Amino acid sequence: MTITPEQAQSARAGVTQTRAALPQLIELEADESGLLYMGPQSEAFVRATLRVLRENPQLVPPGLNLAEAEADLAAWDALRPIADQVLALSNQLQDNLTALGSDAMDVALDGYAQIKLMGDRYGLGDLRKEIGARWRRRSRASAPAPELVTGGG
């Protein structure tokens, strides 16, 4: 696979254009990530409840903002297909990154095996060690043995 600079630029411009088209999008803070999630079953519940409340306004207490909830649901309906498309694209991009990275990693591992096998003959020992640092296990600093505490005496 080859991605030309023009293709990459065009794709990035598309993402930028999408962000510009939806300037009201928010990013949740870490402490907001626990908000209630409206999944498929919850969606049916929300739609039915809002419909019943709209049809029976006498049930709606003054502090319950039904109009705002309906506006939120309408915006959710507008964003859902966009989110589905972007998620599908994101998954496809991730699949390609995985496949491309795997291909490159396979060749690198085979090549590294050759460097380990024959690199010293060509004066590549230091380079082999540098490249191999990725696989080097980090040894734990030897901690002094804990002292045994004995009771009484």
Automatic annotation (TrEMBL):
<protein>
    <submittedName>
        <fullName>Uncharacterized protein</fullName>
    </submittedName>
</protein>
